[in-house]
Amino acid sequence: MPDFVYRFTSLPRPLDPTYPTNIAISILMILTMVAFFAFYMMVGISLITALISAAMVGIGVFLTWAIAREIDPDNEFSAFAAAGIAMLGSVAFGVPDLLAMVFILLATRILNRTVGPPATIFDSSGLLIIAGLLAMRGNWIYPMIAANVYVLDSQLDHPNRRQIMFGLAAVAVMGIAFFLDGWQGPTHPLTVPALFAIALTLILVTMTLLSTDQLDSKTDLTDESLSVVRITAAQIMVLLTCVFIAVWHGAVGVIGVFPLWATLLGVSAYRLLDESFVAPESLNSDEKDVSTHAATD
Prior knowledge:
Number of domains: 1
Radius of gyration: 21 Å
Largest sheet: none
Number of helices: 10
Helix content: over 70%
Number of strands: 0
Structural class: mainly alpha
Distance between the termini: 56 Å
Low-confidence stretches: 279-283, 285-297
Strand content: under 5%
Shape: globular
């Protein structure tokens, strides 16, 4: 990425085409597009619609992977578990809401600062514009989430104080959305399967992601250690977005942002399984060390 780009934005994270996991996600995205194009053609969808839909599913898988990398930066492979779940979910639930996913990706990068520098005015403005576009579709939750992102970014480690003004602007956008659409309560009831999915994900996230107490990953540009507090804030932001949309829009909301649920579920499940396999090995290693020291003494 040219240096002059970072004068205007601090959010881009270019893919190194030689890095193994970057190659893997690129291949997975292309294979997903090809597979879904064939699937859509088989079920009788028109050529243009099949092309566009397949491309959107592939991009959705990539964005799921990217969001997972933001909330679990120390584990390269957990993002593939999330991407896999998102890909399978697209068979049942269809094309994902890409604009909502781009919103969440930008919001996580503003919060966790994986690139390094704080968000620029252009970054914060871009997030606000996307929140406004989503609010125009009746999703007032997104400007509310944006407001919280701005406030947190202005208060956490190395605060960006000007975000307070953007937070106020996001609240104004939410108010305008209420005024234009009129106040409406929850649009769809939560079904039992939706409640079960929410409960399962909450348990997994609490057991794994929110228990993060240290990070080895560094920022892209400044090579500083990532902030545990900021990464945790990004994790909670993604979780609350899913929960708020599910509560307000019911099962329709769960399906609408399924890739975000896939992110939380995939990353949490991977970390839970990874810890269950690593723990016995670590225990045996510790026992061997104790035995060695005992024999030496």
